[in-house]
Each structure stands twice: as structure tokens, then as C-alpha cells.
Write a structure and sequence with these properties.
- The protein has about 500 residues and is α+β, with helices and mostly antiparallel strands.
- About 45% of the residues lie in helices and about 20% in strands.
- The strands form five sheets. Strands 4, 5, 6, 7, 8 and 9 form a six-stranded antiparallel beta sheet that branches.
- The two termini are about 50 Å apart.
Length: about 500
């Protein structure tokens, strides 16, 4: 049942408050990813003396922790059935994916979700029923679900600011409501947006408009308000990063941020020690501090004052007062205790995030390691990426479903709900390993199309290769016959399952 303007505005304000409540954490996580990390855990005295020198410094481990799984999250294709040949419907869906530059957008979107715990894809259509897909940030969008049905979306909201105006678009299963208001601190709750505690429910739309400035938005020449939603589903799908049962999705760097702060402080300690004690320092003991003259504006001496001992220390001279004057030397400081602790901290980051240690620490015990050892070292990462793919598969299906709905292909949209998303293999293989394994699979009778997919070809590329092979057979049947009677690779007995490589 269509809602009234008052009801739509209530929902808009509620969802907007939730979006604003996420902004601080999302922006902090993004800052840590970019290396914008404040120096924490230092004492007040140390910060007073050294803090300014290391402001802006970061030994940034949050970036590789987020980049490592994202590098292995790639959608290679979408299949509606098990037929190796791409149907016209599948070709059309994949074309819509490519025309919307979703290869690049998905890489950015998945990375944003890994950092901030979620991202969104909004699908809408042109007047010619051409799908338009955009990836949205977690601090600008939200999807609301029906109570008791976590996978059933009933509303979505997208917000953005253009110059001095803030916009909000609320989509229900049958309507689209658009709002705008001046973008002022008094209306938006400051730079981070309003807080949920600032909101209340007045008795009328007029009261809402008077309080926070929201009013209907209508482009010139468009007299429809609200706009009908022809898809029958909300326009946005949520891409959660490993959601917890009954809880929020996880940010891959949230647990790394505290250790990142500790690592930055340790480096600052090391640098300060290297600066002040990394080289031998002169020590004057038993001598009163020297005095320097005090001059007036005309350069005439009017008195004396003691030399600032703090300044002498900065010049690597330590002055200790006493009765008998001697000159000695402090040996340089040993800095390896800091590097050892830093390396231990980085290995903890690797363990906590299931990032292979050799991705973070040079060497990390990975010298002259064979293929099996390398595979074992990356098991945690491969499993984590597989877990991400598991949770991302339904929303990716939802994107293709909305492509079909925009084109008014309801039967195809229903098929998309059970489609198969083709993900890039999360496990790294050398080219020699991969080819050797696939040759053995071919020798015992695995279909060529399946082998091509295992090699890493997308569904579209497999179809192209099959078409090329078909053309080759038609053009040169003798060449194809010779190819079919080639002997099996050495050591492979066709028809024996023992020929399968380990782990396949």
C-alpha cells in the first residue's frame, strides 16, 4: 500500500539518522587505511616534546591488510544453468555488468566494505530501460529490512551533498521519494551529520519541514511526486563483509587499528632514540653550567644567565653539575629492541587478520619454500576470501536480478535469484602448476569448458574459446584429429583418479 508523505518523511529521517551514526567510525577506518593516523598511547610529557615531530607519520599496515583479500575478490561471470554455452540472457546480463564498469566499481566497492564493514550497489534505469548501477559508500546509504526477515529489504536511502544542498532519496518496493534541504551545520548536526538522539516525531509534516528543512525535490519538468518504482523491489543491495549472526558486519581493519597505533608509537620512540642517543654523546660532570650574557636592545651586556641544559642535551652534550669536572662519553643506544617488538607486533597483525606473514614481514621464514609450503601459508587467507565470497554471492545475484527487472524481464529476474556467481580462484598457482594440473584433468576426461573455467577464464571467454575451437575443427579437421590422439602427459594413466593433483 502506498505511503503518505508524512510516513515517507518519518522513515527518511530515521534511516538518515542511522547513516549519520555510522559516519564517524567509517571515516576513521578510511583514514587509517590511507595512513592518516594520530599518534596515540604516548605520555603527555613525551607528546609535548616530540609529538609535533611525528604528527602525520604512520607505518601503515592497515592498507595491506585490506588490499590482500580484495585482490582476490573478482566476479568473473554469472551463470543461470549448467550449460557451458552462454545463453542470450546470460550474455545480456554480463553486458549490463560490463557497460556499468562493474569490474572496476566492484573492486572499489569490495575494498570499501572490507574497510568500513559494508557497501551498497544501487541499480536504476534510464527512460529507455537501460540499467544504471553505482556503488555506494556505507556512510551515504542504507538498506532497511523487514522485522524477522533479515534478507527481505523494504526500504533503502541514499544521501549526498551537492554544494550547499543535501539530498535524500527513499526507495520502497513501489515508490521513490526525493527530498532536499539546505546543507547547514545547524541542520546536519555538524560535519559528521546529525545524531540519532537529536530526532523526535512531531505530529505533522509541516512540523518536520519547519524543524530540519526537508522538502520534496522535483527536477524541472517532472510533475510526478512520488515517482513510481517499476521494479517491485528496492533499488539497492547491501554488500556486507562477513556479517555476524544478529550483529553488524565486520571491518577487516577494525582490530588492526589499535596495534597500528602501538607500532607507530614504537617507531616514534625508535626515531627519537636514534636522534638523541643513536650516536655517542659528550658528558660534562661536576662542572657548573656555563653562562651566557644577557644583552639589551643596544647590545650592551646587562647580566648573565645559565645555558638551557635542555638545549645542550639536544646538541648531544649532557651536563651534570658537581664539585669535580670530568668529561666522558655515553655510548650509542641499542635500537634492535624496538625493531624486534615492532616485528612481533606486525606478526600479531598477520595472525589476527589471517594475512600471510610473508605479505607483511620480509622473509618471515619463507625462504626456499616449495609450492605446498606456500599453499599452507596462505590457507587462512584463502579461507577468508572464500567466506567473503559466500556472503557476497546473494547480493551479487541481487544486482543481476535488478538488471533484469529494469528491462522488465521478470521471469529472468526470478532465475537470477538462484544463479551461480563465477568468482576468481582465491588460491594462487604458478602457471606451470596450473597447466600441469589441467593437463592431467584433461587426460582423464574432464570437459574442456570446465578445465577452461578452472584455468581462470570468465564465462564469456570460455564461450569465445569454444567457438574458436569449433571454427578450427571446421577449417582444419586433420589438425583437430591429430590433437585428439596426442599421448597423455608422462606418468598419467588416463582414466585413473590417482592422476588428480593434490588438493583438486
Amino acid at each position: 500500500m502506498p505511503m503518505t508523505a508524512a510516513e515517507a518523511l518519518v522513515i527518511t529521517r530515521k534511516l538518515h539518522a542511522e547513516v549519520c551514526g555510522r559516519r564517524r567510525a567509517a571515516r576513521e577506518a578510511e583514514d587509517y587505511y590511507r595512513g592518516k593516523q594520530s599518534l596515540k598511547y604516548a605520555s603527555a610529557k613525551w607528546r609535548e616534546f616530540h609529538g609535533a615531530r611525528y604528527a602525520g607519520f604512520a607505518d601503515n599496515w592497515c592498507m595491506p591488510v585490506a588490499n590482500t583479500p580484495n585482490e582476490r575478490l573478482r566476479v568473473d561471470g554469472f551463470r543461470l544453468d549448467e550449460d557451458p554455452e552462454m545463453s542470450d540472457a546470460e550474455k545480456g546480463l554480463w553486458k549490463d555488468w560490463q557497460l556499468n564498469d562493474m569490474e572496476a566499481q566492484s573492486s572499489q566497492g569490495f575494498l570499501s566494505g572490507i574497510i568500513t564493514n559494508r557497501s551498497y550497489v544501487k541499480v536504476w534505469g534510464t527512460r529507455d530501460n537501460e540499467p544504471i548501477a553505482t556503488w555506494e559508500r556505507s556512510d551515504q546509504a542504507i538498506v532497511a529490512y523487514e522485522a524477522g526477515r533479515p534478507g527481505h529489504a523494504i526500504y533503502d536511502l541514499k544521501t549526498y551533498v551537492d554544494d550547499d544542498t543535501e539530498y535524500a532519496t527513499l526507495t520502497t518496493t513501489d515508490q521513490v521519494w526525493k527530498w532536499q534541504r539546505p546543507h547547514l551545520p545547524m541542520l546536519t548536526g555538524g560535519k559528521d551529520g546529525p545524531r540519532s538522539g537529536d530526532f523526535f516525531l512531531p505530529p505533522s509534516v509541516e512540523a518536520y519541514l519547519e524543524k530540519d528543512g526537508w522538502k520534496p525535490y522535483q527536477p524541472k519538468g517532472d510533475d510526478r511526486w512520488p515517482i513510481p518504482n517499476p521494479m517491485g523491489v528496492v533499488s539497492m543491495v547491501e554488500m556486507p563483509n562477513r556479517p555476524m549472526l544478529g550483529g553488524e558486519p565486520l571491518s577487516d581493519i577494525a582490530g588492526t587499528m589499535a596495534m597500528q597505533d602501538a607500532i607507530n608509537l614504537l617507531w616514534a620512540y625508535l626515531f627519537s632514540q636514534a636522534d638523541f642517543a643513536g650516536m655517542p654523546a659528550r658528558v660534562v660532570m661536576g662542572q657548573e653550567p656555563p653562562k651566557v650574557p644577557i644583552l639589551d636592545a643596544n647590545g650592551v651586556q646587562i647580566g648573565e644567565q645559565l645555558v638551557d641544559l635542555k638545549k645542550l642535551a639536544e646538541d648531544r652534550i649532557l651536563w651534570l653539575t658537581g664539585e669535580k669536572a670530568t668529561i666522558g662519553q655515553w655510548e650509542s643506544a641499542k635500537l634492535d629492541m624496538f625493531t624486534g617488538v615492532i616485528e612481533t607486533a606486525v606478526t600479531h597483525v598477520a595472525a589476527q587478520t589471517r594475512t600471510p606473514p610473508h605479505y607483511l614481514v620480509l622473509g618471515a621464514g619463507m625462504v626456499n619454500v616449495n609450492a605446498d609450503g606456500m599453499r599452507a601459508a596462505e590457507t587462512g587467507l584463502v579461507n577468508k576470501v572464500g567466506e567473503m565470497q559466500l556472503f557476497l554471492t546473494p547480493p551479487v545475484r541481487g544486482v543481476f536480478q535488478r538488471f533484469a527487472l529494469v528491462r522488465d524481464q521478470k521471469a529472468l529476474a526470478e532465475d537470477c535469484r538462484l544463479g551461480t556467481v563465477g568468482w576468481k580462484d582465491a588460491e594462487n598457482h604458478s602457471e606451470a602448476q596450473r597447466v600441469d594440473a589441467l593437463q592431467k584433468l584433461d587426460a582423464i576426461g574432464f570437459p574442456f569448458a570446465w578445465i577452461a573455467e578452472r584455468y581462470g577464464l570468465s564465462r564469456a571467454d570460455v564461450a569465445r574459446v569454444l567457438e574458436m575451437r569449433k571454427q578450427e575443427r571446421e577449417d582444419d579437421p586433420l589438425l583437430e584429429a591429430a590433437r585428439q590422439i596426442q599421448p597423455a602427459p608422462a606418468g598419467v594413466d588416463p582414466g585413473t583418479p590417482e592422476a588428480l593433483p593434490a588438493g583438486e
